[in-house]
Amino acid sequence: MPESPEQNRSKVLSSSELLEEWKIVQAAQKDASAFGKLYSKYFPQIFKFIYRRTDNEQLTGDLTAQVFLKALQKIHSYSYKGVPFSAWLFRIASNEVVQHYRDIGKNRIVALENYQVKELISEEKSESNEEDLKLMIQYLGELKEEEIQLIELRFFEQRPFKEIAQIMDLTENNTKVKTYRILERLRKKIISN
Description:
mainly alpha, Rna Polymerase Sigma Factor, Chain: A, Arc Repressor Mutant, subunit A, 73% helix
């Protein structure tokens, strides 16, 4: 069952939680055995993030393992930037998913729930229907990879713009502008049909 927006928003960490997490990261940078705390905390989120993009449990398990292996190998290069450690993990996960689909020459999956389509289409429309869902899938398929990621992270994952910017290596302002331009294009296409 998908998480509601309220459940997702509760994942935003306070300043003190971010600093506490940074201490755990610093410990993992000195001693690899401390990485287990980060793994335990973020494994379910990363697994779910990848699963939504693959719809294949075995592949998701393999890619998730690869994400944490790379994170452990590169933990020394991580530096605190005022966002959760998960932003760095999500960037690695996103890159792994993109690379996987590039390697096999297929398009990746975008998992949609009906309530998410309604949120994307328009607040003016009281309900989304099956036709709206089909149109949204079609139009999402026409987006570039970066555009799909922006929409997924903001609306399906309910991530704050600051974290999305970190994941995608963009400025926060650029992230907002790009997201709303994409969203406006999608809404216009759906509403015009």
